[in-house]
Design a protein that fits this description.
single chain, mainly beta
């Protein structure tokens, strides 16, 4: 894949799995998708360990939001930058704003990074009609150097699910589960897609 090409998730998960996704999900995650803004309400919680981890990695411009709140008005802006896709999440009620970029690494594998160099290697797949991103390694980029984070020092396995609800709505769910301390973060919310709804 040319490094200048838009991020193509359909190529990563394969044609059969891509075909099982609803048409609306395919449209939202298609290669070269135009900039889009989605608004919804999020329920957020994090454990004590989660709050500590969020504080520790805050200087790295981490996307971890240490909040326990319900019905938080949230805006998600998605835009393509070069061969990557930037996700900008703005949480109201004083929760804050987080940024991350999904892109391919030098070996053509999917990763997500913050502007401070903190990132995770991702698997992407279809599960029960939903598009799922799941971490299998965390790392920190310092210039040309990449440091792999030990699993026990990470916030845990991150799983993000995008599930279409029909009628121009979808549910976003993020969970992080530590191998020793259980769930550290959980966020879920229903968002409105301003684009015309597609069947399926």
């Amino acid at each position: 894949m040319n490094a200048a090409s838009p991020l193509d998730l359909s190529a990563l998960i394969g044609p059969a799995a891509w075909a099982r996704l609803p048409a609306a999900v395919q449209r939202r995650f298609s290669a070269g998708h135009p900039e889009a803004t989605y608004r919804g309400l999020m329920d957020m919680r994090c454990s004590r360990l989660g709050r500590v981890l969020a504080w520790l990695v805050k200087p790295l411009r981490s996307p971890l939001a240490a909040a326990n709140a319900s019905g938080v008005p949230t805006t998600v802006r998605v835009s393509a930058v070069g061969a990557g896709v930037v996700w900008e999440r703005t949480f109201e009620d004083g929760v804050g704003r987080v940024f991350s970029t999904k892109e391919l690494d030098a070996n053509g594998r999917l990763q997500e990074r913050t502007r401070g160099g903190l990132g995770m290697a991702l698997d992407v797949f279809e599960h029960d009609g939903a598009l799922v991103f799941q971490s299998h390694r965390y790392f920190l980029d310092i210039g040309a150097l990449r440091l792999v984070m030990p699993r026990l020092l990470s916030p845990g396995t991150c799983r993000v699910e995008h599930r279409d609800l029909g009628h121009g709505l979808f549910r976003f769910t993020l969970s992080m589960s530590h191998p020793l301390w259980g769930e550290t973060f959980h966020q879920t919310g229903v968002f409105v897609d301003p684009s015309p709804s597609l069947p399926g």
